[in-house]
Amino acid sequence: MIITQSSIIEAIIEEALGKPDLGVMSTCCGAHMVAVRNESGAGLCSRPPGSCLNHNFEPEPAASVHGLINNLNYQNTINASWGLAAINSLLNREIPGIEIKVQELIFSLGKNKNVAIIGHFPFVEKIGDNFKNFWVLEFSPREKDFPEKMKTYILPRADLVAITATSLLNNTLGEIMNLARKNAVKILLGPSTPMATCLLNMGIDYLGGTLVNDHVQAFAGIQKGLPFRKLDGVTYTVTGKEYL
User: Fold this and answer.
1) Quick one: pLDDT at residue 21?
2) Which CATH architecture best describes the domain 5-95+210-234?
3) Which CATH class is domain 102-209+239-243?
4) Is 153 exposed, middle or buried (0-12, 13-18, 19+ CB in 10 A)?
5) Distance between CA atoms of 12 and 69, rounded to whole angstroms?
6) What's the average model confidence in pLDDT over 98-113?
7) Hey, which end of the chain has fewer CB within 10 Å, N or C?
């Protein structure tokens, strides 16, 4: 079955809209991240490369999370980031799973196998020796990375495919899912990852995302322009069908 970006986005939005609506209490925007806080929790999302750095967002006084969610449809814009942050503020709360960094899962499941990672995460330099073949695909390749356009050659060869959740913002996740082998382990990861069970039913095996435990600390770091890995007030979580 062909999976399209629009069907993925539609399913995530539908799942989030199925949760009770909550008021937007505050938002924040930094050089790398945006965040939305509702009455019960907060959600984060990365900013798309090249988005206007002085852009900020102030919701209407009566704004609700449901009112922001459809912004995810505006792919390749900062609106999509606000939509996904709102979705994460609803879905990434008390999700069953385990509190580990997703790279530990990649390291374990990918041992002696062909592993492809889409997105140059900070941990990639530390884990490559564990695998039979290791490919990092990037839009802006660094040393030893492969250009993103090589995904049509690399992904069908991979036993494990780890995908940055920014693929939900830039209209690429559907194509990636169709290029990967059906029996390959697929992991969606990064601070933008929604803990959406619909993704587990569409071929993603694991979701590696973030829980905001202290929004004051997290928002302060975002407003200072810190990248996600330097934020306080957040924890890592991994979920899959076996945890639900």
Assistant:
1) 96
2) 2-Layer Sandwich (3.30)
3) alpha beta
4) exposed
5) 9
6) 93
7) N
